[in-house]
Amino acid sequence: GWTTWKPLWMCGYGLSDSTVGIIGLGRIGQAIARRLKPFGVKKFLYTGSGPKPESAAEFDAEFVPLTRLAEESDFIVVTCALTPATQGMCNKAFFGRMKKTSVFVNTSRGAVVNQDDLYNALAHGQIAAAGLDVTTPEPLPTDHPLLSLKNCVILPHVGSATYATRSTMAVLA
Prior knowledge:
Elements: E1 19-23, H1 27-36, E2 43-47, H2 53-57, E3 62-63, H3 66-72, E4 75-78, H4 92-97, E5 103-106, H5 115-123, E6 129-132, E7 152-154, H6 163-172
Parallel strand pairs: 1-2, 1-4, 2-3, 4-5, 5-6, 6-7
């Protein structure tokens, strides 16, 4: 599809002046917020099992219910653990609360997301885009509907794919 330049080709939404919602402000959620802050994020919201005022202070992040996070965030990043409480929590109702211009990113576990509901939200323009580093199953079958969407990028669970990280993992194991 690469042709001559077009004014709006390959355009997306920027982080500057945005609201970023983080589901799970643990070690990974904090690391993501730390990396996004310099891009001019206006506001950080987070949700999880409970408020973490010490962790949130660094980003001036506000603890909110999941419904408010979905409604107000321009970008949503999922970094929570997979538990009975989080399994399938990103579902039709959740995506229905998101803005049409919102971008959804899941780096936690595939089962936190109802993938059929995500597909429908993306295919019908209910949300703008999604980036997934995790799916259920992994890898997705080559004929999975999510792989047919132009507004969904799926990586093969490579969040730890650096030589240093894999070496550290080996030492820890």
